[in-house]
C-alpha cells in the first residue's frame, strides 16, 4: 500500500484506485490493484460485492500479446497497442481490459468507452473499474456515477474508487452516504472517508470514525494527525501522534508540518531534530515552515545544510526571496539551481519571472523566456501569463501581446494577465477591446478580470466606461464584489475630480477603516485635487487601520502643503518623526548599455553628476525660453537622511527668490535626473534604455513631455517607462 505526500501542504492519499497494471509471471497475466486516496456519492444500483479473483490467460500466445499491449500503452504508443489488439485472434477478458486500461491511462476516454461498449467486448469487474477510474481522474463525476450504477458486480476497489471520486470533487456528503452503504469495507475505505471529512473541515466526524476503525494502520493514524493539524488543533494532533503504535517518515513529516503550518516553529524544529530518519520532504517542509513565517535566515541555514536538494527545495527558497522582495537573491538562486543541474518546474518559472518583473530586468527576462521555450512549460498558461507580466513590467507591452497571441492554450488566467498588462500601462481602450474579444471566445470574466478592467479605465481617464463596467458587475450574480472593486471605483472617481461622489459612495456602503485600499484610493484622489476635507477624512481612517504607515502621513502633509498650510503640514511631519516613521526615499534607476545607474533624492554620488546638473540648467533655460510656465503647487520630499523639504515645483515668484547657488537642489529629484542621464547618454551612444522607479512621483507633465519629445526625435532611442505603480 503506497502513501503519496503532496508538498508543500501535506495531504495523505490513501484510497484504492485500480492501476490495472499487469505483471507477466510464468506466462500468466495477473491484475494488480494500486491504492490511492479518494471519496463518494449516492446512486441507485445493485449492492453486490465480488470476492477477490485472479484472471489469467490460458493461451501463452494471448498472454504474451496482452503483456505487449500493456507495455505499449504504458509508453503512450496507443496506435501500436491497438494494432496488436486487433491482430490478436483469440482475445480474452484480459486483452480487453489491457486495451481499455491503456486508453484510460492516456486520457483517451472516448476511445476507451467506444471499445468498452462494443457488443463483442468481454468485461469483468476490473474492466468496469478501469473505465470508472478514468472518469474519476478526468473529473467526469456524473458519467462515473452512471457507470457505477450499471456495474453488474462490484468489489471493494470499485466502491472505494467511487467514494474517492465524490470526495475529490467536494461531494463529501455523497461520499459519506456511499461509505455507509458498502456491504463490505477494508482499511482503505475507512482511511478514505476519514481523510475526506478531515480535509473538508468536519474534523469531529472524522475523529469519531477514526476511533471506530476495526484495525488502524499507519496511514489511518497519519491521516488523523494531518487532519487535526490542518484544522488548527495541533495539540490534539500531537496527542494522536504520541499514541501511534508505529510511525514512518510520513507520520513524522505530518506532525512537523502541523507545527510549522500553525506557526509553532520551535516545536517543529525540535521534532525535526528528533526524527529517526529524514527524507528530502522533511527538509523541504521545515524550510517551507520558516519561509511561511518570514524567517529566511534559518530557512537558508537549513538549505545550506542539505546534502540533496530537488526542484521543490530550490523553488521554495526562490519563492521565499521573492516574497521578501529580495529579487536579486532570487535570481542568483535560480542561476545556482541551473548550475546544480536541477531542471525548473512550473512554480520555479512563475516565481523567478516574478522576480524579474519586480526588477524590470529586461535582458534577464529574455534569457529566462528562452529557457522556458525549450521546455514543456512554454505551453503552460500560468507560465505564459508570468512571461506576459514580465514583458509588461519591462515596458514591452507589444511583446507581451505577441506572447499572448502566440499562446495556443489561453485560459482565463491568460486573458486576465493581458488585461492587467494594458491596465498597468494605462491602455484602457485596448483593455476594453480585449475584454470584448474574450467574451466572443466564450470566456466568462471573474472578479479578477473586472479589477484589471476598472484599473485600466481609471488609469486612462475613461470615467463613463468605468462606471458602466461597475454597473455590469453589480448586476452579475456570479461575481462577488470585493474591496478591490470598490477601491478601483473610488480611484476612478478621484482621478476624474468626483471626490464628493466617491465619498458619498463610501458612506453609503458603510465601509470601515479596515478597508485600507478604498480609503487609500480616496486619499490619493484628494492629494491630486488638493481637497483637504475629504483628505482629512480618508487619512484619519487609514491611520486608524495602519497607524505606522508613513505613506498616509506623507499624502496628508502634501495636501496641506499644496494649500499653503505649512503649520498643519509641519505638525504631520512632527507626528511622523515622533512615531519614528520614515517613507522610503524616492529612487530611480536606469539601465543603459548593460550598466545600472541609481539616483536617490538629493544624492550627488553619480560620477557624472556635474555634467548632469550642467545639462539640467541648460535644459531649464531652454524650457523657459520656449514659454514653459511652472505649476504653482507644492509638495514635500524626503531625502536619504529622512529630512523633509519643499519639492521641485514652485511659482515663478518663488523661483526668482531662490539663489543660483540653491537651484541645483531644486533639480535633485531622482525622477528628473533619470531623464537627463538618459538624454545625455542615449543621444551619445544610441543605447536602448529602461527607466524604473521605486514609487510613483506625480511630476509636472510639462517636464515629462519636453523630455519625451526631445528623445522621440532620435530614431535610435527606444523609450520604456517601466514599473508603473498601481496608483498611477
UniProtKB/TrEMBL annotation:
The keyword Transport appears for this protein: no
Any GO BP annotation: RNA modification
Alphabetic keyword roster: Repeat
PPR repeat placement: 92-122, 124-154, 155-189, 217-251, 279-309, 310-344, 411-445, 549-583
Gene Ontology molecular function terms on file: RNA binding
InterPro entries linked: E_motif, PPR_At4g14850-like_plant, PPR_rpt, TPR-like_helical_dom_sf
Keyword match Repeat: yes
The organism's place on the tree of life at top rank: Eukaryota
Protein name: DYW domain-containing protein
Amino acid at each position: 500500500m503506497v502513501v503519496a505526500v503532496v508538498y508543500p501542504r501535506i495531504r495523505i492519499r490513501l484510497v484504492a484506485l485500480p492501476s490495472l497494471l499487469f505483471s507477466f509471471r510464468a506466462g500468466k497475466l495477473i491484475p494488480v490493484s494500486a491504492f490511492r486516496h479518494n471519496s463518494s456519492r449516492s446512486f441507485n444500483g445493485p449492492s453486490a460485492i465480488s470476492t477477490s479473483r485472479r484472471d489469467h490467460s490460458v493461451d501463452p500466445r494471448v498472454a504474451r500479446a496482452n503483456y505487449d499491449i500493456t507495455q505499449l500503452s504504458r509508453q503512450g504508443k496507443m496506435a501500436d497497442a491497438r494494432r496488436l489488439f486487433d491482430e490478436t485472434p483469440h482475445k480474452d477478458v484480459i486483452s480487453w481490459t489491457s486495451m481499455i486500461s491503456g486508453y484510460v491511462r492516456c486520457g483517451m476516454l472516448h476511445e476507451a468507452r467506444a471499445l468498452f461498449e462494443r457488443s463483442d467486448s468481454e468485461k469483468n469487474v476490473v474492466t468496469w473499474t478501469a473505465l470508472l477510474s478514468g472518469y474519476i481522474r478526468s473529473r467526469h463525476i456524473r458519467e462515473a456515477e452512471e457507470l457505477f450504477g450499471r456495474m453488474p458486480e462490484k468489489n471493494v476497489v470499485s466502491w472505494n474508487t467511487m467514494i474517492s471520486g465524490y470526495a475529490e470533487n467536494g461531494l463529501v456528503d455523497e461520499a459519506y452516504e456511499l461509505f455507509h452503504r458498502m456491504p463490505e469495507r477494508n482499511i482503505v475505505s475507512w482511511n478514505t472517508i476519514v481523510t475526506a471529512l478531515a480535509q473538508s473541515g468536519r474534523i469531529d466526524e472524522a475523529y469519531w470514525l477514526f476511533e471506530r476503525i476495526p484495525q488502524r494502520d499507519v496511514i489511518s493514524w497519519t491521516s488523523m494527525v494531518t487532519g487535526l493539524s490542518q484544522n488548527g488543533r495541533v495539540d490534539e494532533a500531537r496527542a494522536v501522534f504520541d499514541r501511534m503504535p508505529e510511525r514512518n517518515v510520513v507520520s513524522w513529516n505530518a506532525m512537523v508540518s502541523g507545527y510549522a503550518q500553525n506557526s509553532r516553529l520551535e516545536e517543529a524544529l525540535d521534532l525535526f531534530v528528533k526524527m529517526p530518519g529524514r527524507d528530502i520532504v522533511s527538509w523541504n517542509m521545515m524550510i517551507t515552515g520558516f519561509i511561511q513565517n518570514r524567517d529566511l535566515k534559518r530557512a537558508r541555514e537549513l538549505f545550506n545544510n542539505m546534502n540533496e536538494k530537488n526542484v521543490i527545495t530550490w523553488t521554495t527558497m526562490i519563492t521565499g526571496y521573492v516574497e521578501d522582495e529580495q529579487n536579486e537573491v532570487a535570481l542568483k538562486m535560480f542561476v545556482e539551481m541551473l548550475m546544480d543541474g536541477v531542471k525548473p518546474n512550473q512554480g520555479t518559472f512563475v516565481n523567478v519571472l516574478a522576480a524579474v518583473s519586480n526588477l524590470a530586468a529586461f535582458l534577464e527576462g529574455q534569457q529566462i523566456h528562452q529557457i522556458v521555450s525549450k521546455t514543456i512549460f512554454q505551453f503552460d498558461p500560468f507560465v505564459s501569463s508570468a512571461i506576459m507580466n514580465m514583458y509588461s513590467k519591462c515596458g514591452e507591452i507589444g511583446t507581451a501581446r505577441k506572447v499572448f497571441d502566440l499562446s495556443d492554450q489561453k485560459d482565463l488566467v491568460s486573458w486576465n494577465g493581458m488585461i492587467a498588462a494594458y491596465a498597468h500601462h494605462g491602455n484602457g481602450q485596448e483593455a476594453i477591446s480585449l475584454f470584448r474579444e474574450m467574451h466572443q471566445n466564450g470566456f466568462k470574466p471573474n472578479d479578477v478580470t473586472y479589477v484589471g478592467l476598472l484599473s485600466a479605465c481609471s488609469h486612462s481617464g475613461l470615467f463613463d466606461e468605468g462606471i458602466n463596467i461597475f454597473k455590469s458587475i453589480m448586476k452579475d450574480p456570479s461575481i462577488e464584489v470585493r474591496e478591490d472593486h470598490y477601491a478601483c471605483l473610488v480611484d476612478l472617481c478621484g482621478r476624474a475630480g468626483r471626490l464628493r461622489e466617491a465619498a458619498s459612495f463610501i458612506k453609503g456602503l458603510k465601509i470601515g477603516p479596515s478597508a485600507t485600499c478604498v480609503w487609500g484610493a480616496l486619499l490619493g484622489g484628494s492629494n491630486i485635487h488638493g481637497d483637504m476635507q475629504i483628505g482629512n477624512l480618508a487619512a484619519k481612517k487609514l491611520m486608524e487601520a495602519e497607524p505606522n504607515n508613513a505613506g498616509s502621513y506623507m499624502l496628508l502633509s502634501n495636501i496641506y502643503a499644496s494649500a499653503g498650510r505649512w503649520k498643519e503640514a509641519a505638525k504631520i511631519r512632527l507626528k511622523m518623526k515622533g512615531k519614528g516613521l520614515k517613507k522610503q526615499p524616492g529612487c530611480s534607476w536606469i539601465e543603459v548599455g548593460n550598466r545600472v545607474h541609481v539616483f536617490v533624492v538629493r544624492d550627488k554620488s553619480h560620477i557624472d553628476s556635474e555634467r548632469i546638473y550642467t545639462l539640467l540648467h541648460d535644459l531649464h533655460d531652454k524650457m523657459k525660453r520656449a514659454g514653459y510656465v511652472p505649476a504653482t503647487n507644492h509638495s514635500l520630499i524626503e531625502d536619504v537622511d529622512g529630512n523633509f523639504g519643499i519639492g521641485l515645483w514652485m511659482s515663478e515668484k518663488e523661483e526668482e527668490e531662490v539663489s543660483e547657488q540653491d537651484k541645483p537642489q531644486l533639480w535633485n529629484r531622482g525622477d528628473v535626473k533619470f531623464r537627463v542621464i538618459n538624454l545625455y547618454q542615449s543621444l551619445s551612444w544610441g543605447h536602448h534604455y529602461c527607466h524604473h522607479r521605486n514609487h510613483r512621483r506625480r511630476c509636472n507633465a510639462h517636464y515629462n513631455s519636453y523630455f519625451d519629445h526631445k528623445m522621440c526625435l532620435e530614431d535610435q532611442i527606444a523609450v520604456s517607462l517601466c514599473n508603473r505603480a498601481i496608483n498611477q
